[in-house]
Amino acid sequence: MHRDHDHDHSMTQPSTDRLARLEAFAERVFARPAFTMPAFLDADHIAFLDNRSGVPQVARLTISTGAIDVLTEGSERVMTLQASAAANTIVYGRDVDGNENQQLWRIAHVGTHPEAPVRFTQDDGAMFDQGAISSSGQYVYARVNSRDKAIFDVERISVASGERQTLIQNSWETGSPSVIAVRADDGQAMVASLNGNIDADLLRVDIGPAGDIAVTNILPHEGSTEAWIPAMAYSPNGDVLWLATNVGREFPALYRVDPASGERTLFLEDAWGIEKVSPSPDGKWLAIEINTDAASRLVLVDTQDAAHRIEIAAPWGVADRFTWSPDSLRVAFGFSTPNAPSAILAANLEGRVETLARAEEPDAPAAVVPELVHYPTFDGREIPALWYRPFTPGPWPVIIDIHGGPEGQRRPEFQPIIQYYVGLGFAVLSPNVRGSTGYGTTYLHLDDIEKRLDSVADIPPAADWIARQPNLLPIKPIVFGQSYGGYMTLASLAFHPDRWSAGFDVVGMASLVTFMERTSAYRRRHRGAEYGTLEHHRDVLERVSPLSRVGDIAAPLFIIHGRTDPRVPLYESEQIYDTLKGRGQDVELRIYDDEGHGLSKRKNRVTGYAAAADFLISRVVDVDPHR
After folding, report:
1. Are 593 and 607 in contact (CB under 8 A)?
2. Which of 158, 199, 413, 503 has the fewest CB atoms below 10 angstroms from its CB?
């Protein structure tokens, strides 16, 4: 259910026929299904997430026949999936109405005769965010905020009974756990304990036979040195920890770590960042993803000789995670390209790739492949961006799409929202402004705290670059973004008001002060490392907030927000809407009662993004090609 808060603007009332056409086209784009997050169950079966129903559900692929069985159902999404081949069991996490409070469920005998799903956590008000499942399938390891909603503890949870054991009890002063790896015998786990979104300590958790716990930091670092840990994994026998980190360097490299001593040896480095690693069951190979100018470069590396590498012949696109077959002869992964949703692919030890599962799409509209471009910004830096141009004849209007995060990156994967607007006849430029991940530590920190408006200042030069491109309409761009990208949208409208024809904000922050006051307690500390804290930087937070310059906003604005959003509370959209409406400006707000941080359900994406398209067409330019 959604609720509209529409400004009375009689000259721009939506056309019923046009809105119906926009929704019909949205149905086709957002119905394009994705198969993601594969996990081998045995030699012939893979569990994965399948969103053909409109939200991700758990499915099982039989490789020999190509048959796909969907194992879960309902209107709510599945967020996480882990599998134990030894136990023939999967564990998945599901929330309600986008509230992100995942509860954990198990499906036993999933490779043979799957049993009905059984829920084994019972605290609806807490988040059970699973990080790993033990090889035996006996336990799942998760970060849990059941004891205190502001703090995540690390727990080991029995998959059979739901019995919970606290491994690390955190406090406000200690870090929040993130990536978790588990040794095969369940006697040791590794936890990345976040000090900020891109800095962590590495905690070794030793679990004795009687359940006694010892915790040791094996990656101590101080001062300005940070350690981002995008990936880690134990070797099959547990004698090596493979660790990807950027400690003391610009980009994450791969280290061989002795779990007992914490001694680390550089194993593999690249000009770009290593962000995924997965050892084969026989211990001979590592599957590695290198984030190369936003695309996934996939490599198999000999664990005994880093110079012995096999490039995986994947197309230009993005992989989600690796899973090895039990015989170690191939590695599977979800893989998305700019013009096709994710499918399940596999590579053999020669690097040849085959498709194991791809959804049928008899009515799929054509999707464009963007061009990787760079444009100069105000301080001489070059900003990387993806440039999407429609198939329809120009000249075209342009949307600037700004990713969330801010520690995020727009990558060459299928983006249905972008493809929807490109399919309507908008060109789209998606920049990775300063503060984006994937371009090194220095670039990542160029927008911290007092430098926040420098990232906003990267957007007008994008409009300058657009103005120099051929076959475009001579009108100002539209600016659009979600979450932090929504903040960037509002900030662009407020701090550079004469550059835009309209704005489209999804779950963005209007005030960083009220955002920090009202965001979920568990997020406040780590957001402070990026934005600044209320105690020490309130003046900065006020100065860089779009609400502080709301009187300068002149362009029409369309807003979408989910009522249960735990990250950016609905209040952020309501206050910018109320303020602009009170000034008599052209603004609309659409609230979805069954969504949280963005629109995850297909039915809502159809109505929400079609309504936004109708708003933009009526205010800016008629590009409706689907008459």
Report:
1. no
2. 158
What is the CA angle 617-621-626, rounded to 5?
60
Q: Bridge partners of 560? A: 506, 590
Cα Rg of the chain, angstroms: 24
Q: What is the 3-state secondary structure (H, E, C) of 109-178?
A: CCCCCCCCCEECCCCCCCCEEEEEECCCCCEEEEEEEEEECCEEEEEEEECCCCCEEEEECCCCCCCEEE
- Average pLDDT of the chain is 92
The number of CA neighbours under 13 Å toward the Cβ of 360 is 4
61, 74 in Cβ contact below 8 A?
Answer: no
**515 closest CA partner among 500, 529, 528:** 528
pLDDT tens for 329-351 read 999 999 999 999 999 999 999 99
Q: Which of 225, 188, 261, 215 is nearest to 445 (CA)?
A: 225
Global pTM value: 0.94
pLDDT reported for residue 10: 31
The pair of three-digit structure tokens given for residue 206, joined into one six-digit string: 């030793």
The values of phi and psi at residue 516, to 5°, are: -65, -30
Residue length, the chain? 627
Convert 292-319 into a string of H (helix), E (strand) and C (coil).
ECCEEEEEEEECCEEEEEEECCCCCCEE
- Can you state the angle between helices 602-619 and 416-424, rounded to 10 degrees? 40
Q: How confident is the model at residue 11 (pLDDT cuts 50, 70, 90)?
A: very low
Looking at residue 199, its pLDDT comes to: 86
pLDDT per position as a tens digit, 37-78: 999 999 999 999 999 999 999 999 999 999 999 999 999 999
Q: Concatenated DSSP letters for 361-404?
A: -TTPPP-PPPEEEEEE-TTSPEEEEEEE--SS-S-B-EEEEE-S
- Closest C-alpha to 38, from 319, 412, 361: 319
Phi first, then psi, for residue 85 (nearest 5°) are: -65, -40
Distance CA 78, CA 163 (A): 22
Give me the pLDDT at residue 594, please: 95
Task: Supply the DSSP symbol for 596.
Answer: B
Distance of CA 443 to the CA centre of its chain: 19
Residue at 372: amino acid letter: L
Mean pLDDT of 156-174: 88
Give the tokens for residue 483: 């979450």
| Residues whose CB falls within 8 Å of the CB of residue 498, separated by 6 or more in sequence, listed in order | 554
Separation of alpha carbons 426 and 501, rounded Å: 13
Task: Please give the Cα distance from 307 to 301 (Å, whole number).
Answer: 8
Tell me whether residue 194 is exposed, middle or buried, using C-beta atoms within 10 angstroms of its C-beta: 0 to 12, 13 to 18, 19 or more: buried
The crossing angle, in degrees rounded to 10, of helices 16-30 and 416-424 is 140
Place of tokens 């998305």: 336
pLDDT at residue 14, rounded to an integer = 54
How many angstroms separate the CA atoms of 479 and 554, rounded? 13
Q: Is 186 helix (H, G, I), strand (E, B) or coil?
A: coil
- What dihedral do alpha carbons 237, 245, 195, 205 form, nearest 10°? 10
For the ranges 132-136, 432-436, 475-479, 522-526, the lowest mean pLDDT is seen at: 522-526
pLDDT of residue 221: 81
Q: What is the pLDDT of residue 3?
A: 60
